[in-house]
Amino acid sequence: MERKKIIIQVLIILTVVASILLPGHIRLKNLRKENTQYKKRIKILSEHNNDLEKELARVKEDPDYIEQKARNKLGIVKKGEIIYRGKAE
Question: Does 84 map to a domain?
Fold first, then answer.
């Protein structure tokens, strides 16, 4: 009988300890997962930022690049140029 009481007390203690620690453990696991996702997002944004910085430097230093962008995006042509537009596919 005494052994049964001890087993019950141990089970009660383990239940109490688990109910206290388990939510914290679950929260920690979720925060680690969230942190990993944020690190991936930071890496992607950092790479994108580097690309934009390179393009900005090119815009500042290379007038031919600005001309190329304007011609492609805005359809600007030089005087005397003839534009040929191919058949749409």
Answer: no
pTM: 0.58
What single-letter amino acid sits at 34?
E
Q: Are 70 and 76 in contact (CB under 8 A)?
A: yes
How buried is 20 (Cβ within 10 angstroms: 0-12 exposed, 13-18 middle, 19+ buried)? exposed
Asked if residue 80 is part of any domain, the answer here is no
Quickly tell me which residue has 């679950």 as its tokens.
Answer: 26
**Do residues 83 and 77 lie in contact, with contact meaning Cβ atoms separated by under 8 Å?**
yes
Distance separating alpha carbons of residues 36 and 45, to the nearest angstrom: 14
pLDDT reported for residue 75: 77
Q: What's the domain range around 36?
A: 2-74
Q: Is residue 88 part of a domain?
A: no
Tell me the C-alpha distance between 34 and 14, whole Å: 29
How many Å apart are CA 24 and CA 30, to the nearest integer?
A: 10
In the chain, how many domains are there? 1
